[in-house]
Amino acid sequence: MRGRFPVSRPRRNRLSPAVRSLLAETALEPRHLVLPFFTVPGSGVKREIPSLPGLFHWSVDRLPELVEPALEAGVRAFLLFGLPSRKDERGSSADDPDQPVQRALGFLRGRYPQALLASDVCLCEYTSHGHCGCLAGQEVDNDATLERLASVALSHARAGAHVVAPSDMMDGRVGAIRYALDGAGFSSVGIWSYAAKFASAFYGPFRDAAGSAPEFGDRRGYQLPVSNPREALRDALMDEDEGADLLLVKPAGTSLDIAARLRGRTELPLGGYVVSGEYMMLRCAAGAGALDERRAVLEYHLAVRRAGCDVVVTYLAAEIARWLREEA
């Protein structure tokens, strides 16, 4: 009967670890992780990236050294970036089948059928000026860029990509890519759109690693202002209307509010990209003894999941997967 016993607050410490695990509201598992990496021309190359200690440039022949341990740990998805053998104004090497991304896709698709292969679609690594599209004077020409992006995506599909991931932030690129893929018989190739990609300060190490820093100006003309959450939501929902299969939010840690709000507006899967600056922030803090690395990394990535992301793109994917296996 009500009132016979004194009312007390619930005591969390009554719950055993097993019960707490059973009742966990959010999970981070290896299947949620996507491992990005950089592939380069040549052979026999495993070269540490100065701006991203602990990460490497890989030639195609040495990719098993990266991919096999990740697969063994439980990671099943990979996102390919490439450094080309040549650059020019229009990024003409981006859709060349002999460049590292296309060669890596063919190699990995044949060798690891269990792996899901996604490829970054952008021009910044391939253009001599470092911008994400074709130029008209010193401005990016949005419409002229769409044809190039569609051609790049199609070259990746032909090479073996399961998914293409346009990161350029041009208006209309998802529709242009979907039209090109469907027209060439690749309707089963998915599009993971960088739908809410902010003009962030956290991309610096990546631009060094990919050799993609702009030669002049910056990318605030086509990436999202960090002050505009409603614009980010509009852009993401437009990508959904154009045929995107997954919407990526980037950087993940500074965009948790966007992921949470977007989760309430779409039924599409969401991804959060823990970018190079976030990787370095965690690594440097842990290296300085300011943080317990394992606990901090797991907490950070769990927060991305908690905000509503179904997958997390992270350079720490293989390490996280191994830690999670050890704790299971």
Automatic annotation (TrEMBL):
Active site (catalytic residues): 197, 250
Keyword Signal: no
Catalytic activity: 2 5-aminolevulinate = porphobilinogen + 2 H2O + H(+)
Binding site for Zn(2+): 122, 124, 132
GO biological process annotation, one example: protoporphyrinogen IX biosynthetic process
CDD domains: ALAD_PBGS (cd00384)
Cellular compartments per GO CC: cytosol
Keywords for this protein: Heme biosynthesis, Lyase, Metal-binding, Porphyrin biosynthesis, Zinc
Name of the top EC class for this enzyme: lyase
EC number: 4.2.1.24
Family, as annotated: Belongs to the ALAD family.
Protein name: Delta-aminolevulinic acid dehydratase
Organism ancestry: Bacteria, Thermotogati, Synergistota, Synergistia, Synergistales
